[in-house]
Specification:
2 domains; 10 strands; 8 helices; four-stranded mixed β-sheet
Length: 286
Amino acid sequence: MKDKYTALWVSHSSISNFKKCPRAYYLQHIFRHPKSGNKIKVVGPALALGQAVHEVLEQLSSLSVDKRFRESLIQKFDVVWEKVSGKKGGFVSQEQERKYKMRGQEMLRTVMSHPGPLQNLAVKIQQDLPYYWLSEEENIILCGKIDWLEYLKDTDSVHIIDFKTGRSREEDDSLQLPIYHLLVHNCQHRKVDRVSYWYLEEGPALTQRELPGLEESEQKVMEIAKKIKLARQLEAFKCSQGNGCHACTPYERVLEGGAEFVGRGEYGEDIYMVQESAEIPESILL
């Protein structure tokens, strides 16, 4: 009998973390700090920027088309920013925070002046966290939040859009869009017609990608999910580079006492910041 409470839950974020470094995956998704019993999270400016911008845009998807831009996105952003201001966002100085906040404001000005697909009808999956059984036999669930689902009226289909707040491009072998295609296909009834990235810092143009095949995508996701399951069973989580890499080093700093505790997250996790030299890479997975 399938049991979602004993199942292995995988997402684009957890799969990406495992592929980069099994040790980083362990420290982010399994490890609990012995002093508090809580999971740990390392914050940094890029992560804070992505979190704030995504939260503002996510609010729009719950509003009808005629109400989405009645209020300034900059004003909404200023309110949301308070959640990541200062050490809560891993900022080491007011000047550093100011630069990141300005980047976020500029991204949202782009959206306000060129809303593109955000001014069209949107599909909202009626699950707080969309998920489906990737394999009942293996007891594995695939889950994840999709940034935006544009409704294409002419074909009664869906356009998956992922917002990017970092300056780096998504790798060609990324499983993000394949995973999102699988989730949208299995969590609502409309066909997916296209998939795109929106690199917000580059302007209003979307970068459309080839629609990933469902069968091939499921095979690729299942392959890595089984590896994660086996690693958890064997408790084998070695650093991909053997002695600390950019993915696991910030978390190792926490264990060594070289990070500063700055508060608790919305899910009860312990939040830490490290020195600027050990900042996590400029990327965001939401």
